[in-house]
Design a protein that fits this description.
Layout (H helix, E strand, L loop, with lengths): L11 E5 L3 E5 L9 E5 L11 H22 L3 E5 L9 E7 L23 H17 L1
Antiparallel strand pairs: 1-2, 2-3, 3-5, 4-5
Helix pairs in contact: 1-2
Bound molecules: zinc ion.
């Protein structure tokens, strides 16, 4: 089976490093939904050594800080699921009272699929700020 994280189709990359990358997910109805994807095949967070795990969690925290600062969500949701694809990644989902499922979990039937913000503008905004946040 081809892994969609190793061989993505088109994806909107916001930041890319040697070990992981940050993408803006195509999730209609949810503005600013990002994924932090470990580049190599690793199944669980605890499979990473200390340095790699600290690097990954530092990137996750930098993306979270950036999303809060730039988009002002009501709450951040962070999840590591990926049960079908054993390829470690985190979802960082800014929640708004206008999003597709508010206040229910994001993985329930969507009430609408209308995004509030222009996704190209969000990508451009986040690309710069995430790079700065990870570097600091
Ligand atoms: Zn993979």
């Amino acid at each position: 089976m081809t892994c969609g994280y190793c061989h993505p189709g088109a994806e909107t990359v916001l930041w890319s490093g040697d070990r992981c990358r940050v993408i803006l997910a195509d999730e209609p109805g949810f503005d600013g939904w990002c994924r932090v994807i470990w580049n190599a095949h690793v199944r669980e967070l605890s499979d990473l050594g200390d340095a790699d795990r600290n690097h990954l969690m530092g990137v996750v925290a930098a993306v979270e800080r950036t999303l809060i600062a730039q988009l002002r969500p009501v709450k951040m949701n962070i999840a590591a699921l990926g049960t079908a694809a054993p390829h470690l990644h985190f979802h960082l989902i800014p929640r708004f009272d206008t999003d597709a499922n508010f206040p229910d979990p994001v993985w329930t039937a969507r009430r609408h699929t209308t995004s509030r913000l222009d996704q190209n503008a969000v990508a451009a905004q986040l690309r710069t700020t995430i790079r700065e946040a990870i570097a600091s």
